[in-house]
Structures are given as C-alpha cells and as structure tokens.
Amino acid sequence: MQEITSKQSRIGGWETIKDVNEPHVREIGQYAVAENNKRTGAHLSFHRVLSGESQVVAGARYRLVISANEDGSSEEKYEAEVNEKAWEGFRNLTSFKPAQS
Question: What is the pTM for the complete model shown?
Fold first, then answer.
C-alpha cells in the first residue's frame, strides 16, 4: 500500500484561504455580489470577504463568506461559491445565499 503524503492528500480538497484581503480573493467576492445582483435584481454592495476556502479541480472553486449590504441597510453575511478557469477567462457563480448564523 502506497503512503500518501500530506501534499497529495490536499489535492482536490478544500484549503482555508489564509489572506482573504489578497486582491484576487477580493475580486472573486466582488464578482459574486455583482453576478448575484445581475441575476436577481438585488442592489447589494460588496464590503469584504470575511473568510473562505478554495479547491483546485480543473480550475479553482471558491467558497466565500462575504459581507455586503443593500441600499444603506446594515451589513449582512452571504455564502457564495464561484468556479473559475482563469486561463479561459471563465467564472461562474454557482451559489449565493444568506449565511447561516
């Protein structure tokens, strides 16, 4: 039986995003809010990414907890999932919903 190294066990697994203020992570969060607004007619304003995970699978998947608000109301938390194939310029919002408290 072959021993699996810790690096091999992480391939395809979800990894915590250590720096949610990194520009690309913020860009994914902004995309998620904008795409949700386009699809639903909402008027949410992106504030910041609070936490997240990423997964490498034929591109990248992101699960983010985002802070946003609508029309001056108090900030709310939302959970978003985005698939990305950066080399193709492809992004797709697969889920956007209020975060569980």
Answer: 0.86
